[in-house]
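Appendix B. Raw example, untouched.
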Amino acid sequence: MADQSKTQLLIKRDKSICTLTINRPEKHNFLTSGLLQEMALVVSELARDPDIMVLIVRGAGETSFSAGYDISAIPVVNEHNLGAPIYNISPLEKALQAIRNFPYPVIAMINGHAFGGGCELAVACDIRIGRDGITMGMPPAKLGIVYPPAGFRRFLNVLGFAKTLEMFLTGRRYDSRSCLSMGLLNELVDPEVLETATDHMAREISENAPMALKGTKQALYKMAENPVLNGTEESELAALFAQSLASEDLLEGRRAFMEKRKPRFQGR
């Protein structure tokens, strides 16, 4: 059996819930290229698993969710290559895209501090639950970096223009209460109940209809990323609604409501 302490990404399955743990506590769960490439691959594989309905992302230990991304991996452009393409899709962006494309909800369990790429990893998740006492922040301006458009867009979708502008212009570290008030966190709990609260949220979500979860995530992201939908996009979202009306899950939901019991959804 492999030594789990040497594995950068731990995978734990519990029925319909899968937890991914960044396992570098001695390095504050710093994100390496190899770890991010593995995360992108694992999340993409889990996306094809019909039994997984909720994904949880967390850091190992009790001090850090993730301290950020490997700064040394950022390419340096000089006067000789100024006009050349400066990068392919980075390992961080690949991992974040995999999370975005995961069909079901992804919860960030923020058990410690989250900075830079670690903060963006949390923002890329659909729901963020954090413990009291954490801090979060984005320091690119302190490093002389204009953040890439895809990253800006994630923060704009979560925080809005004013808070995103403030966060990136100041490079400030925000305490847990500020993170909650500005929308970086959906929920803030005491440290001793963080795992329980996250598990409760995951199980609450997993009891809902699979088609409804997938369709809701797909529709809301489509609308957030494209404020003005074209005719094709409008039709695609309308089709999701129509498909739900014709689903067996809707019939089961109605029966369960009338019979005062929990529904047994099949995703059909």
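End of appendix B.
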